[in-house]
Amino acid sequence: MRIIIGISGGIAAYKIPFLIRLLKKSGAEVKCILTPSAVDFISPIVVSALSNEPVGIDFWNKETGEWNNHVAYGEWADLLVIAPATANTIAKMATGACDNLLLATYLSMRNKTLVVPAMDLDMYKHPSFLRNIEQLTKDGVTILPASEGELASGLFGQGRMEEPEIILTKIQEILKTKTPLLGKTVLITAGPTHEAIDPVRFIGNSSSGKMGFALAETAIALGAKVVLISGPTNCTLTHDALEIIHVTTADEMLAEVKAKWEACSMGIFSAAVADYKPATVSDTKIKKVDDVLHIELVKNPDIVSWASNNKKENQLTIGFALETNNEKENALEKLKKKNMNIIILNSLNEKGAGFEKDTNKITIFDSKGDTKIFDLKHKKSVAIDIFDYIIEYSK
Ligand code: PMT
Predict the structure, then answer these.
(1) How many Cα atoms are found within 13 Å in the side-chain-facing hemisphere of 373?
(2) The domain that contains 92 carries what CATH number?
(3) Both 157 and 212 in a single domain?
(4) What's phi and psi for 205, nearest 5 deg?
(5) Total domain count for the chain?
(6) For a substitution probing ligand 1, which of 257, 320, 326, 379 has the most ligand atoms within 8 Å of its CB?
(7) 61, 69, 111, 205: which is the annotated catalytic residue?
């Protein structure tokens, strides 16, 4: 891979050294071009040392007297990655402006361009920015949308530049250099299930679906087709390689898993399925009459156990264990009892792990007796670790 990283002037430029290292580790050749304002945010010396290449900033290199040839840059690169891409650089790209070396290189690119925006919340929502992004998409540029989180301004919302690991996966997806799941279909369950008590109440939990959707996104990036069966969540994802099926209850989730399982190479069961459901559902809203209300609960079917007990030799089942105590023992017991190949433990005792959070901290155990502990990471990075582990396990 020959990659040009075009760095424009934003705080998120501090993440670029990590991206350069990841790209170099994956065997890529990397050259960097900085806009004049990017030098206020990142030192060209750092970028040059890590990429092991001279850094382009001006059209004219005053020290050597050489011309920085944007045409040569555009011919050399397999991909131009503009990260962080500021609102200003994006606006100029959308209009064809050409007042710096990076923009001239963009206009000279023979291959694809990936834009990774980073800016503040209100800028990210501004109609002019959205118009420019739409224009770039029409022009064939790939956009890796900003993620949600705390912004440099202290505000919270969408605008954070994606993490270097996610950018790397996107680059690999675009250049199709790492598609180990090509030809495979991955089934993923996500989110909670809601088990109705009456027309207005249910038993449920606070799973957001973030972990399951991150797994789906990563599986697609690695070349898989994905069947995502999700309980009620606010998460969204669209892709040609994705079939998304929305369900509410455990019974509905199981019915969809049964319908899809045969065609899948593996199932990753990240849904937080309610273990019990009300024995009967009241047709009308239950009135507040007595001081104590008894609701009889009956066991829900165990979805991952069904898939495990109906798997062929070439199918894998991977489950999660969400624990609050005796974490390792409980996870290993579930691995065995539910006849799974791999179990991913996340404990509510770990800060930043589990329900709703953007991050997770996992330990993976497998049926061969191996274990791996991971650091606290963004759920999108956790999803990459999980697939790396599954791919190694399957070898
Ligand atoms: O959605 P997020 O907010 O991002 O949170 C992610 C998560 C914490 C929900 C996720 O990482 C996770 O841990 N999911 C599994 C939660 C859970 O139900 O764990 P469990 O230990 O109760 O279940 C063990 C395994 O059996 C799980 O793979 C579960 O999907 C599966 N199961 C459980 C009950 C049931 N009736 N059917 C099942 O298939």
Answers:
(1) 4
(2) 3.40.50.1950
(3) no
(4) -150, 175
(5) 2
(6) 320
(7) 205
Please name which of 359, 346, 204 lies closest in space to residue 275, comparing C-alpha atoms. Answer: 204
| Cα 108-93-128 angle, rounded to 5 deg | 165
Closest CA to 210 of 352, 342, 323: 352
Does residue 309 share a domain with residue 222? yes
* Ligand 1 atom with minimal separation from the 357 CA: 3
Split the chain (395 residues) into runs of 10 and give each run's mean pLDDT. Answer: 96 96 91 97 97 92 79 94 98 97 96 96 96 98 94 88 94 86 96 98 97 95 94 93 97 98 98 98 95 97 98 97 97 98 95 94 98 94 95 95
Confirm whether 205 is a catalytic residue: yes
Distance in angstroms (rounded) separating the CA atoms of residues 286 and 376: 43
Tell me what percent of the chain is helix, strand and coil, each rounded to the nearest 5.
35, 25, 40
Ligand 1 pocket test, pick from 273, 342, 346 with the greatest ligand atom count within 8 Å of Cβ, gives 273
Task: Say whether both 156 and 265 belong to one domain.
Answer: no
End-to-end CA distance of the chain: 25
User: How much is the pLDDT for 69?
Assistant: 87
Residue 267 CA to ligand 1 center (angstroms) comes to 13
> Taking the complete model, does pTM exceed 0.70, yes or no?
yes
What residues flank ligand 1, with Cβ below 6 Å? 189, 191, 207-211, 250, 269-273, 275, 300, 302-304, 319-322, 334, 346, 354-356
Are residues 88 and 8 in contact, defined by beta-carbon separation less than 8 angstroms? Answer: yes
- The boundaries of the domain holding residue 119 are 2-174
Of all protein residues, the one whose alpha carbon is nearest to atom 18 of ligand 1 is 272
Residues 47 and 194 in one domain: no
Q: Which residue type occupies 80?
A: L
163 and 210, same domain (yes or no): no
In a 10 Å sphere around its CB, with 0-12 CB exposed, 13-18 middle and 19+ buried, how is residue 287 labelled? Answer: exposed
